[in-house]
Amino acid sequence: MTERRPVRRGTVSRDKPIEDEALGSIVQRLMTPATSPEACTILDLTGAGIRNLAGLSQITSRLEAICLAGNKLQSLAGLPTGLVCLRAPSNWIRFSPNDQDRFMFARELPHLEEIDLSANEISDISVFSGLRHLRVLELNRNRIDSLRGLHGCRRLSHLRLRDNFLFSLDLVASESPLLTTLDMFNNRLRVVPASISEFGQLAKVNMVKNDLEKIELFGTAAEGIRELRLSENPLILRHNGGVVDADQWIAKFPNLKTLYLDVCSVRQLSRLGSADDNNMQSVVSADENSGWPSLFNLSLRGNALRPPLAIDFSCVSNMKNLYAPDTQMSLPRTLPPMNYMLQLVICNAGLTQLPVNMGAALPHLRLLDVSNNPDLYDLAPILQLSASLETLKCRSVGFGDAMIGPTPLESSAHGWGSGELETFPDANGAGSSDEQKMLKLLSKLRRLRKLDFRFNKCTADLYATLSSSISGAASVLDGVLSPQVPGTSVMGDGGHVPVTVPTGMARIDEEMWLRQDNAYVLNLKMTRQTETLRRREDYRFAAVRLLPRLEELDGIKVGQH
After folding, report:
1. Which residues contact 11 (CB under 8 A, 6 or more apart)?
2. Which of 64, 84, 223, 454 has the most CB atoms around its CB within 10 Å?
3. Dist CA 77 CA 21 (whole Å)
């Protein structure tokens, strides 16, 4: 019989794991015949039920990155000091100013460059002070109410503090001079301070869903800020009647490229003294270079109801993307030249007419969404965009109910309608259904790749009806046509301020609608409604024939129906 060797305390043995009486020990998880943790540099123990880290530093001498998400940790004691990346969200870790034996990261883990301790119970941010190599700090969903205690993190570039209890931006700028991204979504901030300009490298700021009542536009210009998200702060412009004075904003944010002001009670956007409050229908710009030269992306979802939102478009002549659904708007009769505009979303805006010079003013427009404007009858301005338009969305519009369009008398009643729709040839050709008559009109848009004409009178019985399958509105600024804007949405759930939002603020859940439409087609076949099926087939076939570049029709890829 072979003699059993005794195992000394504190050493590693292949025959027997390190003794640890606590349940959920990390050592018990690692020391198995199939693992060799001594040489590993990256360790992922997500959801492993670990309660403590005792003994980890004894068995992993080369560990650089570890993920401990979704465990039951209350302390980080036991981690190896050479760790570079630490991710431990969704645990029970607590750092409080009242702790007698405080865990200081600069002493225990001095080489950390990335930390993610979201969804814990951290209230003391000073425990991260002194981390000279720290670049990314994520503390979302904790209990932090002040940033004043964070010192000595001079390489910190990304600070994310979503869903905490911050009442002010009291971070000392000189302690984090390289900060580029600041995410304070869903806190309790009251003011966007003028001192934000002290962060010289700060480029992206997210203060969506706070209690903002004011933005201080005086003091030194914040020249570094390129993206500013202030959505869902309905009181932020209350002090000046909902007016966005472009002159003041340009002075404070001279290099701002992307601005989100969704659900902020915006009533007017203009330059100081350039707008006539009683008549915003005419826009005159004395200098073509005046306005907001740096602003490329603007989101104004869910703002003014009455009176309609008035925009001096000469202020934003360099804009590439304008997203303003669920906002009653007052459009001018003619637009100034906007040669860089790529995307324009003005659905559910109460529109009755579009500017008569859209083709000349928007020569490079690629996406237009005028859905949910039932009083919009004049199609002629849209047809001027034949040289550039690739995506057209016109669900539930007025010209989807009548093929001939308004008479000259009816057009003049709207004030400045073009009255041209009735002049197009072959609009009432014999043997053509209503939907095919509309396709003949739209065939002038030869570059169209996506056309959405659902939920209009002429296509109502060809597809499944729109039910309650909707989801929250997503900004077109997050699309592929806007490389300046990140592809992730900042919209979240919950908030501290009750907000009244227009009821139309929703978009179609396309996946759910496709399932409903497949069921609708199956029902047509089972009930032998051959006439409707034939019209649907003919309609889609005609669309492919008339629009040679078409890839998607009414939410369904061409060839899939």
Report:
1. none
2. 454
3. 16
Interval 329-367: pLDDT, tens: 989 999 999 999 999 999 999 999 999 999 999 999 999
Structure confidence by residue, pLDDT tens digits, 44-94: 989 989 998 887 877 777 889 999 999 999 999 989 999 999 999 999 999
Cβ-Cβ contacts under 8 Å for 256 (sequence gap 6 or more): 225, 226, 227, 228, 249, 292, 294, 295
The residue to which tokens 């072959």 are assigned: 426
Question: Which residue do the tokens 């396309």 mark?
Answer: 510
DSSP 394: -
Per DSSP, which regions of 307-409 are E strands? 309-311, 321-323, 329-330, 343-345, 367-369, 391-393
Mean pLDDT of 489-496: 36
Contact 252, 290 (CB under 8 A): no
Range 519-557 burial, b when 16+ CB lie within 10 A, else e: ebbeebeeeeeeeeeebbeebbebbeebbeebeebbbbe
Tokens of 94: 């607590």
The tokens for 50 are 């670990």
Q: What's the CA gap between 17 and 27, in Å, rounded? A: 7
262 vs 475: CA distance, rounded Å: 10
Which has the minimum average pLDDT: 264-268, 357-361, 404-408?
404-408
Burial call 103-125: b when 16+ CB within 10 Å, e when fewer: bebbebbbebbbbbbbbbebbbb
User: What is the percentage of the chain residues whose pLDDT exceeds 90?
Assistant: 61
Q: How far apart are CA 333 and CA 321, in angstroms?
A: 20
Question: Could you tell me the end-to-end alpha-carbon distance of the chain, in angstroms, rounded to an integer?
Answer: 75
The amino acid at 268: Q
Whole-angstrom distance, CA of residue 79 vs CA of residue 90 = 18
Q: Which amino acid is at 353?
A: Q
